């Protein structure tokens, strides 16, 4: 499809030269349609592509991901958005296709982390999707193709330097993969495990009622975890990721991080946030920063001084009680963990953010304690017997 080698400007950092990507005795399965992707761009591109391709295959729906530093900030499938979500995601003026809905959801999961993202789209990028990309601070996109209208818009982004990659949908890598660390070569079987509904059959809690929407969301969580730096925990709802805790050394810190992101995602839909009086012309990243500060409990008067530059007036902030009342309506959330829960503290924290359904590997010496915690909250938990570490 393309060259067998692409020479890069540098590696992870400017001082790491020379750098390149290449296919061993074969051409690369990509075409660079615009821009000059770098080393980290390609790492994000190939990881995110695997995620969206697998989501598409598992659900039959268009899928999208928003990647930063080789982990997803968000991932989603093309489920229609409510008017509230459209406003929260700044896409209320766009006639969304299912492909565009997938990326709007992926981008909207964690808008702070998606700043400067790499986007992956499982389907042909159409004009509505390109409009969202053109309005976002983004480094590049990988997809199996682009309409002429989409290309015409995207090649203007970043003064013509926006990175656009076309990926061969039929490409399949070899079964064994290698990498080098400190001059030592590592080799392992590629993680080609197919995640499906059968992994949800071993329900170990008293409550065994999983809705079809929850099954979809648990699959989204597991597939997202498969391409997230471990340790990792993923919250999903309504066809999209709403919080990822990635790369933490302890499981509970993953859960706390993912839960806090899920809380912020839901609080962004509070009427007080949707009605913040932004001045005309304020860019979306500035709005995201102010919203993030507005929702923080530890914001200082000094940090608030800059609000006058972007808001028509300084609004009253939500009290802790108002936040708690709003968050009490967050329910039906699905949670996936890339390995077993060693303690019940993960379940206790998850319950505070509306988690009703859990899938995890199982196999801890404290499984009985974790199961009992789920029973106390009337949660449904399945043991997948599958670990999804990714490094």
In short:
The protein is an alpha/beta fold and 391 residues long. It folds into three domains: 5-167, Cytidine Deaminase, domain 2 (3-Layer(aba) Sandwich), CATH 3.40.140.20; 191-267 and 327-383, 3-Layer(aba) Sandwich (Cytidine Deaminase, domain 2); 278-317, no CATH class. Helices cover 34% and strands 21% of the residues.
Helix fraction by DSSP (H/I, runs of at least 4): 25-40%
Q: Which fold name corresponds to the CATH topology of the largest domain?
A: Cytidine Deaminase, domain 2
Count of DSSP helices?
13
Residue windows where pLDDT falls under 50 for at least 5 positions: none
CATH class of the largest domain: Alpha Beta
Which outline best applies?
globular
Q: Name the CATH superfamily assignment of the largest domain.
A: AICAR transformylase, duplication domain
Average residue pLDDT: 96
Distance between the termini: 28 Å
Strand order, largest beta sheet: 3-8-7-6-4-5
Report the structural category: alpha/beta
* Strand percent estimate: 15-25%
SSE pattern, N- to C-terminal? EEEHEEHHEHEHEEEHEEHHHHHEHEHE
Radius of gyration: 21 Å
Fold and architecture overview:
The protein has 391 residues and is an alpha/beta fold. 34% of the residues lie in helices and 21% in strands. The protein folds into three domains: 5-167, Cytidine Deaminase, domain 2 (3-Layer(aba) Sandwich); 191-267 and 327-383, Cytidine Deaminase, domain 2 (3-Layer(aba) Sandwich); 278-317, no CATH class. The chain has 13 helices and 15 strands. Helix 3 (98-108) runs parallel beside helix 4. It is globular.
